[in-house]
């Protein structure tokens, strides 16, 4: 490996910046409409971006352009400023974790062997690999003593997804691509894994591109949401703005923006609260909630308590408060209607 390549490999292991500049992907024989149509957007290092949109709108295609499972028909994708075309695809994929819907584990490999695939390709020694495998299995809630020697067929769907996630982050890639990783799971497993992915992202700080159909999942996980339709990105914004200020009627309907209770159950208290002045006194009897929490359950608490406001804490420290005007401010629709 040349010094330049080596430096680039190292760079790919820290959170990457991914830029799409007028990128289109046209499949042969797929009619006139490109699967991805003139997409321009930037994903900042360490950002958690969620792609959402109806079936067939191009989410998977966009994701696969990032690790060069597909190459763009036109436009340029660059990673940390380097055009993808200049990076060999296998090299790129070694540094990008990829999780697909049904786990995609190798059935004849044990859990440990599955997780160790990329470290193996990177030439890690046995001890380092084994330690990393155990560490990750613990991190995704699978005690290594119990699970390392099992085969995928001896795991539940949720456990397979956990192994898929552990495998994807095994070599500490700077980029994690996740294509509807929890689509096939029951609601409880799904919500547990969402929390785990969020914690993992907070700990590891990779750049994550995550595909889902589910606006609740998107609102929970995303720093920014890209709403897609027919290959185009209609809106690329924070969950709060997508929910409160949908770019058009299509986005409004997709995120259920007309339903106030739904909006309140999607918006986080952190986004709705009034920040507390450090000098402002907090009464000993004021009701308290802890972040993270959505506005809807917080509103229940506020109403039940009969108090004029609830104090919002983060890590035990009061950081703001939520009162009825604050709730109202995130309830009022700002839907940009077509032609309005
Ligand atoms: N390998 C391929 N060859 C030809 N056409 C393809 C190929 N892959 C995807 N397409 C087409 O490109 C469009 C976008 O597909 P894509 O898989 O990206 O959608 P998606 O948003 O991921 O959908 P879903 O939510 O159902 O997974 C679709 O019209 C699809 O039929
Ligand atoms: Mg897809």
Give a structural overview.
This protein is 38% helix and 22% strand. It has a six-stranded mixed beta sheet, sandwiched between helices. A four-stranded antiparallel beta sheet has the order 2-1-4-5, covered by helices on one side. Strands 11-14-13-12 form a four-stranded mixed beta sheet. It is globular and about 60 Å long. It contains 16 helices and 14 strands. The chain has two domains: 3-258, 3-Layer(aba) Sandwich (Rossmann fold), CATH 3.40.50.300; 263-329, Roll (CBS-domain).
Strand content range = 15-25%
The ordered string of helix (H) and strand (E) elements is: HEEEHEEHEHHHHHEHEHEEHHHHEEHEEH
User: Overall 3D geometry?
Assistant: globular
- Share of helix, binned: 25-40%
Number of strands: 14
Mean pLDDT: 88
CATH class of the largest domain: Alpha Beta
Small-molecule binders here are: adenosine-5'-triphosphate, magnesium ion
Lay out the secondary structure:
Blueprint: H1 3-12, E1 18-25, E2 36-43, E3 48-52, H2 59-66, E4 74-79, E5 82-83, H3 89-94, E6 96-99, H4 111-115, H5 117-121, H6 126-139, H7 144-147, H8 157-169, E7 175-179, H9 187-204, E8 207-212, H10 215-221, E9 224-229, E10 232-237, H11 239-244, H12 249-254, H13 260-266, H14 269-272, E11 274-275, E12 288-290, H15 295-305, E13 309-314, E14 317-323, H16 324-329
Parallel strand pairs: 3-8, 3-9, 6-7, 7-8, 12-13
Antiparallel strand pairs: 1-2, 1-4, 4-5, 9-10, 11-14, 13-14
Helix pairs in contact: 6-8
